[in-house]
Amino acid sequence: MSEDEVNFDWNRRKRIGIGEAVLAQGKSREQLYAIVEAAVRRNASVLFTRLDDQMAAGLPEIDYHAPSRTGVLGSFPAHRIKSSVAIVTAGTSDAPAAWEAQRTLAFNGHEATLIFDVGVAGLHRLLARLEEIERHNVVIAVAGMDAALASVLAGQVSRPVIGVPTSTGYGAAREGDTALSSMLASCAAGLSVVNIDNGFGAACAALRILNTSRDKSGSTTRTLPQSPGT
Amino acid sequence: MSEDEVNFDWNRRKRIGIGEAVLAQGKSREQLYAIVEAAVRRNASVLFTRLDDQMAAGLPEIDYHAPSRTGVLGSFPAHRIKSSVAIVTAGTSDAPAAWEAQRTLAFNGHEATLIFDVGVAGLHRLLARLEEIERHNVVIAVAGMDAALASVLAGQVSRPVIGVPTSTGYGAAREGDTALSSMLASCAAGLSVVNIDNGFGAACAALRILNTSRDKSGSTTRTLPQSPGT
Amino acid sequence: MSEDEVNFDWNRRKRIGIGEAVLAQGKSREQLYAIVEAAVRRNASVLFTRLDDQMAAGLPEIDYHAPSRTGVLGSFPAHRIKSSVAIVTAGTSDAPAAWEAQRTLAFNGHEATLIFDVGVAGLHRLLARLEEIERHNVVIAVAGMDAALASVLAGQVSRPVIGVPTSTGYGAAREGDTALSSMLASCAAGLSVVNIDNGFGAACAALRILNTSRDKSGSTTRTLPQSPGT
Amino acid sequence: MSEDEVNFDWNRRKRIGIGEAVLAQGKSREQLYAIVEAAVRRNASVLFTRLDDQMAAGLPEIDYHAPSRTGVLGSFPAHRIKSSVAIVTAGTSDAPAAWEAQRTLAFNGHEATLIFDVGVAGLHRLLARLEEIERHNVVIAVAGMDAALASVLAGQVSRPVIGVPTSTGYGAAREGDTALSSMLASCAAGLSVVNIDNGFGAACAALRILNTSRDKSGSTTRTLPQSPGT
Amino acid sequence: MSEDEVNFDWNRRKRIGIGEAVLAQGKSREQLYAIVEAAVRRNASVLFTRLDDQMAAGLPEIDYHAPSRTGVLGSFPAHRIKSSVAIVTAGTSDAPAAWEAQRTLAFNGHEATLIFDVGVAGLHRLLARLEEIERHNVVIAVAGMDAALASVLAGQVSRPVIGVPTSTGYGAAREGDTALSSMLASCAAGLSVVNIDNGFGAACAALRILNTSRDKSGSTTRTLPQSPGT
Amino acid sequence: MSEDEVNFDWNRRKRIGIGEAVLAQGKSREQLYAIVEAAVRRNASVLFTRLDDQMAAGLPEIDYHAPSRTGVLGSFPAHRIKSSVAIVTAGTSDAPAAWEAQRTLAFNGHEATLIFDVGVAGLHRLLARLEEIERHNVVIAVAGMDAALASVLAGQVSRPVIGVPTSTGYGAAREGDTALSSMLASCAAGLSVVNIDNGFGAACAALRILNTSRDKSGSTTRTLPQSPGT
Amino acid sequence: MSEDEVNFDWNRRKRIGIGEAVLAQGKSREQLYAIVEAAVRRNASVLFTRLDDQMAAGLPEIDYHAPSRTGVLGSFPAHRIKSSVAIVTAGTSDAPAAWEAQRTLAFNGHEATLIFDVGVAGLHRLLARLEEIERHNVVIAVAGMDAALASVLAGQVSRPVIGVPTSTGYGAAREGDTALSSMLASCAAGLSVVNIDNGFGAACAALRILNTSRDKSGSTTRTLPQSPGT
Amino acid sequence: MSEDEVNFDWNRRKRIGIGEAVLAQGKSREQLYAIVEAAVRRNASVLFTRLDDQMAAGLPEIDYHAPSRTGVLGSFPAHRIKSSVAIVTAGTSDAPAAWEAQRTLAFNGHEATLIFDVGVAGLHRLLARLEEIERHNVVIAVAGMDAALASVLAGQVSRPVIGVPTSTGYGAAREGDTALSSMLASCAAGLSVVNIDNGFGAACAALRILNTSRDKSGSTTRTLPQSPGT
């Protein structure tokens, strides 16, 4: 793949308010090189997700964060809005998806609060933090296995709750499928869900919510494809 | 089941901002009677979802809407906020879930805009409506089969997009599972998803977003369970 | 099928301490008749499970309880031990499995306590009952959809907790499979699980626990098959 | 992850009678270090499960047992109760889950009896041991593939039988899912089941049974979260 | 569908030794009429399987047996070979598949022995019949749910054992899929399996075995398709 | 495996118009050697698919192309027909399947047009190329995750569209199963589909279409197997 | 639903060469009425698929064909092209999907040849028809259960072969999923596949092939949506 | 595991006519050592299946055959019966399961005929061998992907046909599950099936058939477990 073949969607941030991001997993070294070169030449910032250590080692231009497997080309915004999002995890193993969400929000100008290890098996840990969680505009609930945290949380707080099921666990955890279905079938009203381990997606859903409360210029609509009027 | 056994969560609206709702499916006639009686005595409004014709016929106190299989005990709010939510469907068969969302929003004080039948097989139908859709605060995308509408929509509008996969289709549509997985694996960033055919859940997720932009009294936090300080 | 073909396991109660039970579902009317006749002639008590209304109408000898779909041929024990088992349900729709467990326990001499409708979406309802639940020897947790009740409960009480996933819900609830996997993958230690909607099985598991604390005569081992010493 | 982020549930043993345990699988080296340090500082004993050789090599404080992939930080109880639990396996390949159960019981004060390799393909091997098995208070049946051992066992002994399906086998064994479903659908009454390969969970379920027969102080209930009385 | 469209494989019995059979399920009334007429005109015997009551009522030429849902057009062989096949079932609900096998064998000249209700939950019932079963040339094991009967049986008898998983049970029985996978993953060597509820297929597999021990004329090979010698 | 055991279908090209191809995956080194030797001796061209780097390194006779994992023994046709097929991909990660299709077409005499990275998340990229795509005789749509590209494309162009779902993505992408089901359930009429990642199969389907429009000699029908006239 | 809400894609035939079609399944009576009225007013022809008897009875304007569950509003083309498509089925039960394909082709101007009941269990029936099948431009292979017909056919004929898996069979046939996967994993090169029972889709795929060989005016491209040139 | 823990079923050959075999996969090095030592001391022959290269390297007493992953401790019978079984494979990749069957038969005294690479995509290859195949007493059909070979074969030969689905293929081949379901749902009557890749099981099923035609001493029945006469 030559660099000419890189076909970026450079208008994405302008159109939907989310910066350019690239899913590194499944791409070859050559493809990632070409993407970096194209972005550098255009002086664009890019967030790479699911980028493993070996891949990152070959891309020195990138600010790499191993636990979340994210890399940033270019710079984070200097000023970030605080306390807009609470990211809550059930267990220690859910941290990578939480960090992916945190880094995605930072890349887009928001400083999230991380609240770790408050799974429902020891319920008091969660109850002690509920008021703090409620003070944020959006809540991201990260949980694997039975994902009961998301249901309990959505039953107690009034904020938008976005569930991130994780692949934590084994056997009947089914690599995250049980957590996913459990969140979708939750007894709590109004919990919405993203893909397994998709901290990036949850952050983007949060960004859409946060962006909506701000004024938007007409520039967005100008980039919409137009029907030819048939 | 006697009426004494009805154990309502009467504080739900106060706690999370969403009115009391009951999933009628799977409940016996006796259980539904007991629920209605308990609510009537308390003078409470209740939304019933997935309530079929036969069940509804035995509950005359309820305002029943067959296409959405919803029933309302008590009254809708007199004043509803307009244009806050756009509900967009891919095909005619997706209408029941859309109406369920519409009725849930109305029950909670919001007047949604319905945009029907703009599936991507005839792309111009959707492109012609994009600007209109973008003017709402939240977008609910209702689609079955391949659910491509949700991806295209989330790629073009900046608003929070909540996907409702539907059980429309047959064979490989797998009663909505394909639409569900398709939305979860969407190539568009920040699409969040609710259960199959769950227009109610999508509306509740939208309500959480809409409620968050308004001031909230401290009463909510007073109803939170408290940790005993261990 | 003639009555001669009925091949009962008449020693079951003697061998494993649980009275004879018959799964009615999947059996023809003729087969059920033959079973009743064989039992009547032997003056034996039999518990029928998953017996629907139509089937039961043709078996007047049976004491039928429609909500649990159970029928009893013969009589319940006159004296029942109280407070040995707490049966806790998440929602109203989980009642049939709870009643099936209750009737199975009654048939075997135990009076269970029913605690309904304490699902985690309104957590205070459950927290208010925890001390009462803890006072029983065995806890049966009945929940569908995300089955979060079972995890929360097993995290808070020290008693044996047997989970009964139910087929409540739709879509991603997958007819109880999500609740089942969720319970199996629970973050709470030592929750054990039975088949979907299997209140009977949970009651039998409880009986094994309750029976073990009592003295057992050697008669049981006498009925064990013997190896020929090869 | 710094050590400050470790959020242990230190009251677990007091609350539900089972010592602190950590699922090592899915945690990073850094996370495991932080957990060990926090526990050492508090002088707490911790059981690590699904801890592989490489991870264990970096944690010299831990007493590691490779075949069961368990490690213990701190010490086992000096006095253990004998013959309370029989752990029975169908084949040699089921041993790891059996050893995990054995080590979990030992960590919590019980000395289990191991009975290996008595699968039903050679039925006499099992029949010769039935009387011995019946003399224990709880039976843990560990089996993969068709898991027929669990059904035969539960049909012959009166004790609580907890099934541990294992991932032994290939193809239609479906990494333990067949054994799991087979146990759940067992024709024997009152068999309860834990997750695939979850010897730890079976041991905890046994502990709940064993603990229940002993007197319990009121201290447990004092640590329960309290409802604020709404 | 006119009768001209019936495209029978009239040489099947000559080619593979099994009489013509028609799967009625999924065929329309018109199609079944056309098949009967074509067979009558050719004076051929045909076995119909999975033929429900309503369908059968419209086909008076057929000797219908409701419990097995089989119908025979033409006559059964006058002389049948005895004791060649033992058909063994785990429970009463497995009878329909057993009867389908029995009728298929009878239609092809063999009188099978039926042994009902010897599931492993009450193991002595099976052990008492093992010697009798061993005296047959082929064994058909019919079992649903955990299908443990097939494993125990194949571990104890030396004859060819053909497993018929049945759709008996609910929940984790997965409409026969658990029994099917359980048999395929059996710990007993040399158990072979047919489709769920497929008593017909098991009987045909038995017929292939029974036919092979007899002398075969060269006529069979004459009907084989020939390669053109490329 | 000795070379004698290689049983090629040397008449395939003559019979169905597609050159000999070998699926390398799943074959041992020895088997691949034997195949190469047999082909060399016969002076035949062979296309190898799913041939990984290590395997290819041991087969120096082969022209290997790593990104598509294809290797060609013998030569490509000197003259290739241009613009007959457009191969369109949603993302960069879909490239390997696209290249496999391209190389298969080239091996069979067609020069395809590659159009990369036009997924629907940035719809304008696709809309800009629709007229160009329509000018080809066949369209191959390569897409993973939600596979929405295939539906949008088939809704806009009139040409035969063959979908290749890819294993791109994670979690709910289910290793390509979601893309596969999504394409099969597409709301666009007349989209046909091949196996996951099967660029080879899509190219062969295209070749069947392209070959049909050309005159065919009678030689094909001469190699058909003949019925012996029973 | 009022008639105003009908949002037809009236340009479909002009754009992609396939007449307007409506999937009736999943639509309410009111929705179908509104569609018929809108089409009648516009004097448009519409093909209804998966339209059951009861629905059709309420729509007298429609020419209904029960075996294929198709209905046509308006008229079939007077002149139809012959012998362009061969529709081949494995068994009698596969006929409905074959007829659906036939009717769809007729509605779009092609007269297909039907070849029934040539499944591979009696291979000579298929071999006798191979030359005839090869004389058509496109082959549609309709088969359920193991779907072996499609593989054998695609291995013997050179024409485009479109597989239609059907839901014929039971148990391991998995309502058509086995036939679907079997066709996708076929050992024959270049078989493409549509959804289960989707005779309509196969016919549309054939139409795309047949239409491509004819000259096309530029009108098609004029109706394509246009990118705004970002 | 010490050697004392080895609990062999030494009577298996006497009881069911099949020599002792050990599934090596899933066993640790220590467990395999203990098994070898126990067998050596008893001078017993043992067949190891699914034994990989590394494991085998540590067991020098074993005659190892890498392609089939089988090892034999002790010796093969000197005299083997010829032509009793034909093992037929669809493709080269199916060879390992075929060799496993061949080695198992040899270990038990039968010399099988191997017929490779006759898959139905090139049907003439199979048709040319049908008469030869028919001359054997049992046929083992080994095939992956669509497994169409098994259906065609069972439709043409009269002998017992045992299908071995293999994990050959990718994507919709689902690691052998498609081949497995395809064989189970086969349109050919009397095909029976074993687990995926289970050449050993197919050989054992064949041995049961071959053994049944020979006279058997009463010794078998003497080793049967006996019911105590309850």
TrEMBL record, chains A, B, C, D, E, F, G, H:
Organism domain of life: Bacteria
InterPro entries according to UniProt: P2CMN_synthase_LarB (IPR039476), PurE_dom (IPR000031)
Transmembrane segments: none
SMART domains: AIRC
Residue ranges of every copy of the PurE domain listed in the record: 83-215
GO process annotations (BP): 'de novo' IMP biosynthetic process
Gene3D superfamilies, alphabetized: 3.40.50.1970
GO molecular function, one term: hydrolase activity
Protein name as it appears in the record: Phosphoribosylaminoimidazole carboxylase, catalytic subunit
